[in-house]
Write a structure and sequence with these properties.
InterPro entries: 6-blade_b-propeller_TolB-like (IPR011042), Beta-prop_PDH (IPR054539), Quinoprot_gluc/sorb_DH_b-prop (IPR011041). It comes from Mucilaginibacter calamicampi. This is PQQ-dependent sugar dehydrogenase. This protein is mostly beta strands and about 425 residues long. The protein has a single domain, classed as Neuraminidase (6 Propeller). The protein is about 0% helix and about 40% strand. The strands form eight sheets. A six-stranded antiparallel sheet has the order 1-2-7-6-5-4, with no helix packed on it. The protein has a five-stranded mixed sheet with strand order 8-9-10-11-15, with no helix packed on it. Strands 12-13-14-16-20 form a five-stranded mixed sheet, with no helix packed on it. Strand 30 and strand 31 form a beta hairpin. The longest helix has 6 residues. The radius of gyration is 21 Å and the shape is globular. The protein starts with 5 loop residues before the first strand and ends with a strand.
Length: about 425
């Protein structure tokens, strides 16, 4: 049984931030319901943080987390384990904007709201120097409330890539089930835009549309082996508007979600086509003349890994550590935030093995049973939503239901 947590306000010298100290007599116990491969162990290292999204671990082992709801909370928290007992008992909150993306790189903390990207200068201890005066890097990103998370990544050339999801599921004309010819929404949503990571005051118009046809990408990472950008896509919903083409079972199982490697000008097909994981091909969308079988005339970017519908891959991480067994090196972890109702499987962390910069096998379950319930039941306990690698090579997983952070370590041979 978990020990009770009591919150007391305390003023700490933590780069000038006001902090809350979490008083707990004991370290929270391992999470016994999380299933991991032999030789791995799971511990809860932080809890009750609220609706956390992505997270970043600093070189000295402290943690920054991003919040997606700032009601009675802050948008960012800096977590520290002052007594080195394995539990982060202190959190310092700052930032009054919700959002998802967060990175620590090149002496800065980068953080995104649902319409902008900010950065904060860090001191030698990786603490934010001036929490009240972030530098505004990009502003004016489209935010229509639906699928508005702005996940981002920075490459080795200091270029900033921001995923901008589409608030429209299929770019239909208003009040119609027919798609808008050419889908003008693709000019501002449904893709990835490229900016400079070190240039303040950029607007949406300053960005380059790096890739398009990606309906909503929550997972985005830079692969240090290929020097390219990879994303995981949340697919559209087929709903029940086309019963002449799709059964209820097909609606529940389609379309596939996917892992893509992006290069300049890549097009993953949204909204004109989607990937069918049963026919193993792109299928023309019903709004644009498709019938559930017809292939599009245009060739779209092929997925590297096909993910079942509605798994909601919320984060992507290429593992560069050395503490995990060799099979995990340079491979990709994915956090699945939901489940397939038809398959009754989800709420897990998956792994895709890579060799020479390409997947060398299908995705596999790495950490499972975050739901803590019989598969398909209600009362989900945890939903994996963020991934980060620690300086010791451990994998951190954030949950946005209870605001829990798990640390997965390897101690086997």
């Amino acid at each position: 049984m978990k020990p009770s947590l009591y919150f007391t306000a305390a003023i700490l010298t933590l780069a000038g931030l006001t902090s809350l100290t979490i008083n707990s007599k004991n370290i929270l116990p391992p999470a016994p319901t999380i299933k991991v491969p032999e030789g791995f162990s799971v511990n809860i290292v932080a809890d009750t943080l609220g609706p956390v999204r992505h997270l970043a671990v600093t070189a000295n082992g402290n943690i920054y987390v991003k919040q997606n709801n700032v009601r009675n909370r802050k948008g960012l928290y800096y977590l520290t384990d002052n007594n080195k007992d394995g539990y982060f008992e202190t959190k310092a909150g700052f930032g009054d904007y919700p959002g998802t993306g967060i990175k620590v790189i090149n002496g800065y903390l980068y953080s995104s709201s649902n319409s902008a990207v900010y950065r904060y200068k860090l001191n030698a201890k990786n603490e934010v120097i001036d929490a009240d005066k972030p530098e505004l890097i990009v502003t004016g990103l489209v935010d229509k409330r639906a699928d508005n998370a702005k996940a981002f990544v920075i490459d080795d050339k200091n270029d900033l890539y921001v995923a901008v999801g589409s608030y429209s599921d299929a770019c239909r004309a208003q009040g119609s089930i027919v798609g808008i010819p050419g889908c003008p929404l693709r000019d501002s949503v449904g893709g990835v835009w490229k900016f400079k990571a070190d240039k303040a005051g950029q607007t949406y118009a300053d960005g380059i549309r790096f890739a398009t046809g990606v309906k909503n990408s929550m997972g985005i990472d830079f692969n240090p082996v290929t020097k390219t950008i990879f994303v995981t896509q949340h697919g559209r919903s087929l709903d029940n508007k086309f019963p002449q083409y799709y059964t209820s079972q097909q609606v529940a199982q389609l379309p596939a979600e996917a892992l893509y490697e992006l290069k300049q000008g890549a097009d993953a097909g949204w909204p004109f086509a989607y990937y069918d994981n049963f026919q193993n091909k792109y299928v023309q969308s019903p709004e644009y003349g498709g019938d559930g079988k017809k292939s599009p005339d245009v060739k779209y970017l092929e997925p590297l890994t096909v993910i079942p519908a509605h798994f909601a891959p919320n984060d992507l991480l290429f593992y560069t550590g050395k503490s995990f067994p060799a099979k995990y090196r340079n491979g990709a972890f994915m956090a699945f935030h939901a489940q397939s109702p038809e398959m009754q499987k989800g709420y897990l962390v998956a792994f895709v093995p890579f060799k020479n910069g390409k997947p060398s096998g299908n995705w596999e379950v790495f950490a499972d049973n975050f739901s803590g319930q019989a598969t398909g039941s209600t009362g989900i306990q945890y939903r994996p939503t963020g991934l980060a690698q620690g300086p010791d090579g451990s994998l951190y997983v954030a949950d946005d239901l209870k605001g829990t952070i798990f640390k997965i370590s390897y101690s086997g041979k």
